[in-house]
Design a protein that fits this description.
- By secondary structure, this protein is of the alpha/beta class.
- Helix content is 38%, strand content 16%.
- The protein contains 13 helices and eleven strands.
- The strands form three sheets. It has a seven-stranded mixed β-sheet, sandwiched between helices.
- 41% of the residues are buried.
Amino acid sequence: MIKYIGSKRTLLPAIVAVVRDLGRDVHSVIDLFSGTSRVGHALKAAGYQVFSNDLNAYAHTLATCYVQADREDIEADARKLIAEFQALPGRPGYFTETFCEKSRFFQPKNGARVDAIREEIERKGLEPELKAVLLVSLMEAADRVDSTTGLQMAYLKQWAPRAHNDLELRLPEILPRAKHGKGRAHRGDAVEMAGVLEADVAYLDPPYNQHSYLANYHIWESLVLWDKPEVYGVACKRIDVRKRQSAFNSKKQFFQVFKDTVAAIQARYLVVSFNNEGYIRREDMEALLATRGKVTTLEHDFKRYVGAQIGIHNPQGKKVGEVSHLRNKEFLFLCKLSLGSPKTT
């Protein structure tokens, strides 16, 4: 899967274990801030019916591939198309101009391949699940040959060694249908979707600081939407990055919007992933969740993401800040909600 800040890759076993320990009558899970869908994918692999949600188009595409699409329905067609697209010669276009010439995220040879493959995906008029699988294949192929530290706020001054490799499409790790039913990928506002989606468990992994995921991964948003937007700045960010602001990225607004989200949850259990660098302290999070039921907290110690280990740099690549600490604490808050079991839809 793509490189992603806040990815719960190292925490996956603990998250799945928490859900599994809730009992055999737990069959369905809401993943309200799905991101890369690592968590939804792991829960699907464990047999749970997963309902994913995210407001960003690239995240919805990842969830459509990794949560909603089932291998038995899609694999044969996907393999055929991947082989066809892999043979396409490069044709420079918007992607090459924007992300290889105006900026330097990718080598032009790979940008031209992205352009050619993305245009062909659009021309085919594929059904949504198959299109999502092909888009994820292209997104992950581009991610393997980028020249960043994992964020698209800036590119490296010198080419990363992987950037010289040739772009190669691979079949994403699509899972067979989960034991407890087909998953669904949704794209909507978290507070609104919290009041719409129903399941046995709701898993919440909200943004925890001022950094916007849309700004951090704007290239994937443009690749998925293929709307060829106007861009700004050295990183060639989508112009709508300036407008699509989330209350979850605001220190002043976070507590209230998260409180509203928790209040709207329709599930028997709530699992919240957060860390000690977030807007809410452990004690405040426990107090907030206690308004819905009994709370148990699990604490895990982890190395910080690579950008934090490297330090703070300005747009010209000059180091302007020092690394304050190399590890953080990840919390899993489990809350047994004080209401009956909802229907699964």
